[in-house]
Amino acid sequence: MTKALSVGALRAEPGTKARGSVRADLGTLTVDLPLTLVNGARPGPRVTITAGVHGGEFTPVDAAARLATLLDPDEVHGQVIICPVANPPAVYDGRLNVSPVDGVNINRVFPGDPDGSPTERLASWLFAHLVDGADVYIDLHCGGIDQVLRDFVGYRLTGAPDLDGATAQLAGSFGIEDVILGLEADGGNSHAAAARRGISAVLVEVGELGQRDGATAHRRVDGLLQALRHLSVLAPTGIDGPAPATVREWVWAAGVTAEATGLWYPEFTAGDDVAEGDLIGRIVDPADGAEHQVHTPVGGRLFYGMHGLTVAPGHELAAIAAPWDPDPATRPAGFRTPGVGVAPAEADPRA
After folding, report:
1. 99 conformational bin, left if phi > 0, alpha if psi -120 to 50, beta if neither
2. For every residue of 30-85, which 3-state class applies, written as one string?
3. pTM
4. Where are the alpha helices (DSSP H) in the chain?
């Protein structure tokens, strides 16, 4: 028998759906978080879905809002919590990865600090009220307004065979071919912090350049419905769908960062395969036209990259993943651990 589902003052009894907003106190300010609670009529897992962790990523927000409208509690087994705008200051005011309130990227500070900066407090609130207690956590992202990106799902290995196996199956259920592994569940990314708490957690990246077109949103919703059917939150449709995608596993191998200030002219498309030393773009000094060529430090596949025009030293230009070989005996000697050259303290640069 399912129980009532509550977040703050918002409450959904078994077999009902509740929609509204819940206020989070961040110390120097408060924010209103839109939530949909879908409390199924029959027992099952609790699934939390967030979008809008970063600003400028419109398709995840659109897809989460569409899913919230679509789900019928009479058809749901278990409970689904949907937060389409998890970081209102960044989404509504900043449209960037960092919050305009304190300049913090929330997806570097999970599970947060209830006594920290406003963004750290928001991360703590999200974990305490939405993520903790979930069986499954799905965090939706896409390439931001200045990023090209190839669709992928990411998750972290924890060393717990049952948890890692369940998360691998979840990652493969969205119909996305490429799955990028983090070899450790460290760092402040949302799905890494959830994995450390024993929650099956994935990052889902679909779309680029902040897209908000209907076709991309529908593709995202279809993937979420597939995942909910995989989790038995929704019953199978009884209609044969597309054949499951053949999953290819990757690990982050290197990031490419700018070494000069100027105008960035990329010469790649997200999803391109590259060899070590390939030219992927040029930075041109607008003052004198001097050109700085940018080459790849390793071979692999370019999963996302900077599409904006202006860059400065240290700005991320691209991220490269390499095919994952779990056998150290056959793994290339030059293999680099995930995150090298991208974000030294974290194993997943994109999230």
Report:
1. beta
2. EEEEEEEEEECCEEEEEEEEECCCCCCCHHHHHHHHHHHHHCCHHHCEEEEEEECC
3. 0.92
4. 58-70, 88, 118-126, 161-171, 190-196, 214-230
Least Cα distance to 230 among 47, 96, 21, 63 occurs for 47
Cβ atoms of 223 and 206 closer than 8 Å: yes
Residue 5 has pLDDT above 70, yes or no: yes
Residue 159 CB neighbours (<10 A): 9
Rg of the chain over all Cα atoms, to the nearest angstrom: 20
Q: What is the pLDDT of residues 293-350, one digit of tens each?
A: 999 999 999 999 999 999 999 999 999 999 997 776 655 554 443 333 333 333 345 5
| Strands laid side by side in the 310-311 sheet | 291-295, 279-284, 262-266, 310-311
Share of the chain above pLDDT 70, in %: 91
Other CB atoms within 10 A of residue 259 CB: 14
Interatomic CA distance for residues 18 and 346, integer angstroms = 36
Backbone φ/ψ region at 95: left (φ over 0), alpha (ψ -120 to 50), beta: left
Q: Are 21 and 68 in contact (CB under 8 A)?
A: no
